Fold this sequence. Notes:
Blueprint: H1 2-13, H2 15-18, H3 24-52, H4 54-60, H5 63-74, H6 82-106
Helix pairs in contact: 3-4, 4-6, 5-6
Amino acid sequence: xxxxxxxxxxxxxxxxxxxxxxxxxxxxxxxxxxxxxxxxxxxxxxxxxxxxxxxxxxxxxxxxxxxxxxxxxxxxxxxxxxxxxxxxxxxxxxxxxxxxxxxxxxx
Length: 107
């Protein structure tokens, strides 16, 4: 992925801005993502695996794109179009199907 992103950055931004030094705000954002968000996500994910089991925790990964859409919409960065809402609905149907299949298997 790195060569592809470098090529796209070279075309989109030009060589002068391809690998520029981040601003203080950007550095703080990168530090937040690298340390706090990654560490919290790691702890939460593996705690969920221990508490819920692998099968059920795997269903949680379907929630990620839906939550990203909701947050982007709340922040005004994305519109809730019919296609996006249909995708979110399909994710919900998939999660429900996985939960129902797990219940039937437990019987």
